[in-house]
Design brief:
Layout lengths: L4 E7 L8 H5 L5 E3 L5 E3 L10 H5 L5 E6 L12 E5 L2
Parallel strand pairs: 1-5
Antiparallel strand pairs: 1-4, 2-3
The structure holds iron/sulfur cluster (2 copies).
The site of one iron/sulfur cluster has 12 residues, from helix 1.
Length: 85
């Protein structure tokens, strides 16, 4: 089955620490750090459902398709990235 991997991407500069994504994540993946910015604390538990992206009012967390080959069993390889602009 064809597919693309997805990356969970956080833009720390746009995060205002409102905790909406933390509250809505069904997998308890996200936390706020000491600077009140979201961090991906448990990427291994992420279901890549996109709820965090949907709920964030500041576009600070995004689920993006990435061009990388899928693994042999067809499952997309999970990735996450944190960047600052
Ligand atoms: S994609 Fe879904 S499971 Fe992953 S961090 Fe966002 S809300 Fe949580
Ligand atoms: S919903 Fe957006 S602005 Fe609020 S804590 Fe999460 S990433 Fe930051």
């Amino acid at each position: 089955m064809a597919g693309h991997a997805k990356a969970l991407v956080v833009n720390r500069n746009w995060c205002k620490g409102c905790r909406i994504c933390v509250a809505f994540c069904p997998q308890d993946v996200l936390e706020l750090d000491g600077e009140e910015k979201v961090v991906i604390a448990r990427i291994g538990d992420c279901a890549y459902c996109g709820l965090c992206e949907l709920r964030c009012p500041d576009l600070a967390i995004l689920l993006q398709p990435i061009d990388s080959p899928i693994v042999a069993d067809g499952a997309a390889e999970p990735r996450h990235e944190i960047f600052t602009v």
